[in-house]
Amino acid sequence: MKVVAFSWPIKARMLVSVASWLFLMLSHGASLVRGEVMITEVAAKSSRSTCLGRDWVEIHNPNATAPVDLFTGGYVLHDDKGVTNEQAFFFPPGTVLQPGEYRIWCTKSEPREESPQFGIGRQDTVTLAAVSSASSSVEVGTGRAMGLYQVVSSTGPLPYITVMDGFDVSYAWDSTTGRYEYTSTPTPGAGNVLTPVGSTAEQIAALKTQLTAQNDLGAVFFNMDDRGLSVPDGMDTVLDLRLVMVEDDYSYLLQNASYEVYRPFQS
Ligand SMILES: *[C@@H]1O[C@H](CO)[C@@H](O)[C@H](O)[C@H]1NC(C)=O
Ligand SMILES: CC(=O)N[C@H]1CO[C@H](CO)[C@@H](O)[C@@H]1O
């Protein structure tokens, strides 16, 4: 026999939250007028600098003249656990996307009312849904809240790809092909730039090029090549630091060469 793993307290809480949200929405005089907004970009942990490394979702209002109110429009953002999951995210009052705006939401952040609390897992699906305009006649108490919503925009399951650590990647809408693709040039909060992610070999080559360029900059700045010798176009020495160390400590430094080694010095 199959046991339905759905405890009553959670179910009750969920229904109360949907019901109170609907009430809040209606009490704000919401008319369920909405525009054509869409999910334009999502990042599943692989975009490092944005949102302190957390996942993020970008939503775009392509309309050039009309703002879209995500609260009064009855929008909800959820992952593949669906709109009835506790972590489905209801936009708070005053969430208005201006004409042409791209805005990102960091997941699992504070305050919780302003951040989707679901993570975007491998092959997860991120969906933007909205309360169906026919919802006034639907009984929220039946628990079939699913029927209240219609999908507005969905990424579909995020395809699995190999992405090296240290490589910035997002899954972005390509308006020229009408499909989502991975790009190695994430553009959180702005129009997408599609740059194919490439094979593992190509990622390694790109990373090497990037690191070599960074190393070359460092060689000029520190006026020191890989062997510690000065370089032709190196910058002038600004600070000449001389330390006197005990022989053992000095040899320890040489034997344990690393960017961070702690040893006492005499003067
Ligand atoms: C922008 O929104 C307005 C108001 O909802 C609508 O009349 C218009 O058709 C929309 N424009 C586009 C290009 O969708
Ligand atoms: C932390 C560490 O790696 N220490 C090493 C430094 O070098 C000496 C001599 O080779 C080693 O004995 C230590 O283990």
TrEMBL record:
The keyword Iron does not apply. Residues 33-162 form the LTD domain. It comes from the Eukaryota. This is LTD domain-containing protein. Keywords: Signal. PROSITE patterns: LTD (PS51841). Residues 1-29 form the signal peptide. InterPro entries: Lamin_tail_dom, Lamin_tail_dom_sf.
